[in-house]
Amino acid sequence: MLIEIHMIQNHSPANLNRDDLGAPKTCIFGGALRSRISSQCIKRSIRFSPEFTELRGGIRTRRLAEKLYEQLSKEDIKTAEKILGAYSLIKKGKKSKKEDSDEDAFNEESEVLIFTTYKGIKRMVEMIADPELTYDDKVKRFNDLLTKCVHSPDMALSGRMLEAKGLKDTKVEAALQVAHAISTHIARPEIDYFVAADDIPGEDAGAGHIGESMFTSACFYKYFSLDWDQLKRNLNGDENLAAHTVGAFIKAAASSNPSGKQNSFAAHNFPDGILVEFSKIPISYANAFVKPIYFEKGTDIVEQSIGQLANYVEDFVTGYCDDPSSRISFWFSPNGRHELNIKSKNFAPQHVDNLGELVSKVLDQLGNFDWDEVRQAKVYLGD
Questions:
Q1: Residue 352 CA to chain centroid, in angstroms?
Q2: Strand, helix or coil at 331?
Q3: Alpha carbons 13 and 302: distance in angstroms, whole number
Q4: Is residue 312 part of a domain?
Q5: Is 381 part of any domain?
Q6: Are residues 24 and 66 in the same domain?
């Protein structure tokens, strides 16, 4: 079962996700220039949002060796160094000079980015320090800890692709797909010319600094596809933790924004509409906006975007679904501000006015889960 999430979210002037030149990211869609937020940027803002904090059990780093060093006694450091060297997680033979210490090697970043869990690191430390295990046992168990200790919601959602010498079966299939957010209308970056005044001026009254910063303002369509069955598999069958993850993800996706230049723009805008559907196959409604929206007098860009989304959803359901009446979906707009007006008598999403109610409806559909109960399912977040 797939949980399909579609959002319409309007942002005030911002530079949430910029390219190598510092400009807001863009793309050509439908032959027109659109503002864009990358999927990587969206996922990271969700992962580090307050709503998702207690589920962030994964850690992604090149400094695994350093993390282990902090918790190991001196006598276990050399064993750990040999194990990490066997998997090319630190460079063999780095300590060519007598003055080089063990700590020098452990502070060296590995050549690959490791995505593991806080619980996994704790078990690595315990395993390396275990006097009853042989070196060969420790090498094997280290591989097992990297491949099997993956039951954290953030890793279960985003997956893992890890290529390192000697490591086997390290891939984790992502339960979540995230589209790049695109503006529903043409959006051209603008330039903000600014000056910084010198509080202690000299003889000249000029500015202490002059600069330019690019920004844009856009209404975005966002799309997420969450595989419920894959999520449960990645969490070792823990349905309560999976339900907690779904609820927290919906809340985080609605309430989090990328951090790019927020100190300058404070574009902390929430979605005006969220559509959640249950489906066997993924379907993006991005083509609802292949023809960019143009402002019409007497309405606004958000209202027009939601209206265009509603028309496309109705056309899709009517054209592709054998039994539209069996299609389950929920539409949320804060306090019922915007309706998703679908004229079809065979299909109409259930409207809810509160985000908490939306989460409850989704969890109930997944298996009569209660949000207050499943949110008690915890993950190890480190000491």
A1: 25
A2: strand
A3: 15
A4: yes
A5: no
A6: no
Please report, rounded to a whole number, the percentage of residues in the chain having pLDDT higher than 70: 89
Helical residues (DSSP H) of the chain, grouped into ranges: 39-47, 64-69, 74-86, 102-107, 118-128, 135-148, 153-158, 228-234, 239-255, 262-265, 301-320, 355-367, 371-374
What's the confidence (pLDDT) of residue 94? 47
Buried-state track 99-123, b at ≥16 Cβ within 10 A, e below 16: eeeeeebbebebebebbbbbbbbbb
User: Which residue(s) pair with 9 in the sheet?
Assistant: 220
Give the H/E segment covering residue 160.
none
With beta carbons less than 8 A apart as the criterion, state whether 47 and 84 touch.
no
pLDDT for 325 equals: 75
- The total domain count for the chain is 2
Nearest to 183 by CA among 24, 48, 322, 325: 24
- 328-354 residue pLDDT tens: 999 999 999 999 988 877 788 899 999
CA 41, CA 114: separation in Å to the nearest integer?
19
Write the CB contacts of 289 (distance below 8 Å, at least 6 apart in sequence).
29, 30, 182, 184, 185, 221, 305, 308
| In a domain? residue 97 | yes
Q: What's the CA gap between 23 and 15, in Å, rounded?
A: 7
Is 157 inside any structural domain?
no
The pTM for the full model equals: 0.86
| Pair 182, 276 in one domain | yes
Q: pLDDT tens digits for 226-256?
A: 999 999 999 989 999 999 999 999 999 999 9
The secondary element (H helix, E strand) that includes residue 6 is strand 2-14
If one counts every other C-beta atom within 10 angstroms of the C-beta of residue 167, the result is 18
For the stretch 93-120, pLDDT in tens is: 444 444 555 555 555 667 677 778 888 8
In percent, how much of the chain has pLDDT > 90? 53
Strand partners, 254: none
Structure token digits, residue 355: 């985000």
Torsion of CA 307, 251, 359, 58, to 10 degrees: 130
CB 244 within 8 A of CB 372: no
Closest by CA position to 177, among listed 304, 6, 13: 6
